[in-house]
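User: Show me sequence and structure for the first protein, then do the same for the second.

Assistant: Starting with the first protein.
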Amino acid sequence: MGIEEVLAAARAGLVRLSPAEVLAAQTGGALVVDTRTPAHREEQGEFPGALVIDRTVLEWRLDPTSPWRVPEAVDADRQVIVVCRHGFSSSLAAASLRAVGLHRATDLAGGVEAWIAAGLPVHRGPVDLRT
């Protein structure tokens, strides 16, 4: 099986969201997680209200049963929306989060590129949402 088949299988279990749907879900309390590299965040801008978590530790940080979880990982029922640059790796990440029990995990179809194309804001420089 090649990556296209793996990606299709990952997406089969997701209800992927449009930029407008992500904005509405975020307003309703969904946790948006940005897995883009620092270089991509610098190039495209920071995603408003997103928690930045490196893809290599994503499952450990978001699993509510993990001793290495972030404070935002309160329970398995919280909707988590993963964003990446184009919406490919975020689909794989969301499927992985579902595999560890975060049954409402999904992603932004088209990634941050779609967000920007929809005219939605990004900002320059990181923002610490915990202050």
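Switching to the second protein now.
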Amino acid sequence: MLLGCVLSQKWIEIITGISIPYTATLGSHFYIGHFGGIIINANAVIGDNCNISQGVTIGVSGVGYKRGVPVIGHDVYIGANAVVAGNISIGDGAVIGANSLVTRDVMSHTTVLGVPAVKINDKDSKGYI
């Protein structure tokens, strides 16, 4: 039975290009805007009403006590090809711009962009969700 479930999950990953392990915690109204290239760590926590685009990775990073996976708040928008990694917190209403690398906490209701991502303004995700 377990083997059948694992094979089914892998088949879905291959067809959709999206890897979301059953142990990941996803809030209600989680939305994936476009097909493919999405990887979510098995221990990731994502709040309600979040929207992610294609190519997004939400994963593990760091060493020692800094090693871990992100906790993403409610109403967060993550742009295409962004990477959110490590033992960090993404605040409610945050916007992560396309192609950004986020390895530090993001305050609520702010927009970050770049590699590494830095705060660029206090606009929230209201227009993106």
